[in-house]
Amino acid sequence: MPNEVAGGDVRVGIRRLPEGEGLAMPAYMTPGSAGADVCAAIHDELTLLPGARALVPAGFSLAVPAGYEVQVRPRSGLALRAGVTLLNTPGTIDSDYRGPVGVILVNFGTEPFTVKRGDRIAQLVLAPVARALYDELPALDPTVRAGGGFGSTGG
């Protein structure tokens, strides 16, 4: 693929937006990190009451190469410590989207949670995309599970 560089890394274009001035762009915190942390690009503090949600700007737009998506995922520390996570998880940034990236935060905790400018609120994971060809069939191949749904495999 034309966007791949040495080591299998893939180039993703990024454009800083005015609200992202002075903030770190997405960055991997350790050499083994799968996700690049994203900061809150807000000017005033935002307090999420328990049960509340808000769209928080990330301060940039992306140019994801064809054949890939960028997944927006929660940060485990926020979920564990405060009960704050993301709705629509994982969110998908498609290769043909060029608008501002936003993070839908939700407070499932029991206390108000305050987001400050520059707080790490989510992570981005680049993933390859395979497109399915959906073939309408008169019947599907049988399996042991068949139509068993939620909880049907035990536990």
Could you describe the 3D structure shown?
- The chain has 155 residues and is mainly beta.
- It has a single domain (6-128), classed as Deoxyuridine triphosphatase (dUTPase) (Deoxyuridine 5'-Triphosphate Nucleotidohydrolase, Chain A), CATH 2.70.40.
- 5% of the residues lie in helices and 35% in strands.
- The strands form 3 sheets. A 4-stranded antiparallel β-sheet has the order 1-4-8-6.
CATH architecture: Distorted Sandwich
How many distinct domains? 1
User: β content, as a range?
Assistant: 25-35%
The CATH class, by name, is Mainly Beta
Tally of DSSP helical segments:
1
Shape: globular
CATH superfamily, by name, is Deoxyuridine triphosphatase (dUTPase)
* Assembly state (oligomeric): single chain
Radius of gyration: 19 Å
- CATH third-level topology: Deoxyuridine 5'-Triphosphate Nucleotidohydrolase, Chain A
Keywords:
155 residues, mainly beta, Deoxyuridine 5'-Triphosphate Nucleotidohydrolase, Chain A, 4-stranded antiparallel β-sheet, 1 helix, globular
Question: What's the structural blueprint in terms of helices and strands?
Answer:
Layout lengths: L12 E4 L19 E4 L6 E3 L4 E11 L4 E6 L2 H7 L1 E3 L4 E3 L6 E8 L5 E3 L4 E9 L27
Antiparallel strand pairs: 1-4, 2-10, 3-9, 4-8, 5-7, 5-10, 6-8
